[in-house]
Specification:
Layout (H helix, E strand, L loop, with lengths): L2 E7 L3 H12 L4 E5 L6 H6 L1 H19 L15 H25 L3 E4 L2 E5 L2 E4 L2 E10 L3 E3 L12 E2 L1 H4 L8 E5 L3 H12 L3 E5 L11 H13 L3 E3 L2 E9 L2 E8 L5 E6 L1 E4 L3 E3 L6 H4 L22 E3 L10 H15 L13 E3 L4 E6 L2 H6 L4 E7 L4 H5 L6 E7 L5 E8 L2 H13 L4 H5 L10 H9 L8
Parallel strand pairs: 1-2, 1-6, 2-3, 6-17, 8-15, 9-10, 9-15, 10-11
Antiparallel strand pairs: 4-5, 5-6, 7-16, 12-13, 13-14, 18-19, 19-22, 20-21, 21-22
Helix pairs in contact: 1-9, 3-4, 3-6
Bound molecules: 1,4-dihydronicotinamide adenine dinucleotide.
Length: about 450
Amino acid sequence: MATYDVIIIGSGPGGYVAAIRCAQLGLKTACVEGRDTLGGTCLNIGCIPSKALLHASHMLHEAEHNFASMGLKGKSPSVDWKQMLAYKQETIDGNTKGIEFLFKKNKIDWIKGWASIPEAGKVTVGDDTHEAKNIIIASGSEPSSLKGVEVDEKTIVSSTGALELGKIPKKMVVIGAGVIGLEMGSVYARLGAEVTVVEYLDAITPGMDAEVQKTFQRTLKKQGLKFIMGAAVQSCEVKGGNAIVKYTLRKNDKEEQLEADTVLLATGRRPFTDGLGLDKLGVEMSKGGQIKTDDHWQTNVKGVYAIGDAIDGPMLAHKAEDEGMACAEVLAGKHGHVNYGVIPSVIYTHPEVASVGATEAELKDAGRDYKTGKFSFMGNARAKANFAADGFVKILADKETDRILGCHIIGPSAGDLIHEVCVAMEFGAAAQDLAMTCHAHPTYSEAVREAALACGDGAIHA
Ligand code: NAI
């Protein structure tokens, strides 16, 4: 048994970042992880492996669709699926080992196994109970289930199984047009599968700017994805090796069905807190299963904190990281803070989709007077040269003060471009501040500046 200042439960982006910051701030720190490798869902079965497959399949798409026009003639590459999976695994290993190295460097103990909290100040792992002045729960989330759909991770898969398929599907049905469904659906569509996305709502990616939703869906359709919208999936059964997906169309209650060799269930995630003993400990939970915390990430049990997907808010790795850093600072007696108004979200399809701050719908609902500056990548020389001119940047600013309230991008490197707007918003900048900042030519980032110019006297290349 050892005594620590902090024990963190879970080594995903929330947990490992919290651990590193705690150690950097002089706290004796341990992190409990039951998986064989550090990094949680994000590094092992989420963000990182999916990005490897998105990258590889995008390269194939480029070779098939754009190489010839650029004067790169010859046969398109064929897919060696085993090698692609090996490349994905190498990417995972490089990252998880990197965290192990950072733990050693920062003298963080990795306690291997699954933790429970018998009482405040104590963490049990296997037969050992460790003492800690403070505990941070960073136990993450897991795919949520859907009534009538039993995931076997072979024919009917969750996001985990979708990263490990035995072969590339011929026909794939994706249940849910959210981030996971569209990212993984894109991967397999590029690799040759016939992908149909079945979505309950009438628009894809709920909560996103409506104009982006429309452009995004149109672009994905051009890439071969099919959509059945307004359709509630009722059941999915495996018969003779294939899966039958039954759904009801909301407009007329008509029941229809689809057959596929692979079905991806991507209808959301829920907090993962199993086995922690939170019930017995008396930790307050919300109806949705999230751990309730105060403004400093402390639960109602003194000395027990929680961050990341296990608490309220968007289930995003970088939100968890920020909470991890801020919570560590609170424990070290500093002033930890997260600005929840400036958390970007990115979908890593091609083109990428990124947003930060308010959408037009939210501003309208709040009765705010706002103006819109929009610029199409068609007017961006670099995007045109790279066959990446689909999409636009939209900046929303306060009508009177010109302060930036939100930004929504669909286009090349949107996930990187969004960050200059995040920085601007953190500094309380006006659209004119971005518009007056010199942007290098020719870069995609000029489209952001042009959208900012469009909030004022007008974009130049529109
Ligand atoms: P999601 O919540 O983004 O989307 C789920 C979709 O399924 C919704 O559009 C919903 O209307 C639909 N749906 C629900 N029940 C249905 C039914 N019975 N029939 C048809 N459609 C139905 O969930 P997703 O994609 O599983 O992602 C889970 C979480 O993981 C999200 O919070 C997301 O932010 C996070 N994530 C983030 C990534 C990123 O930042 N790039 C990548 C992957 C996941």
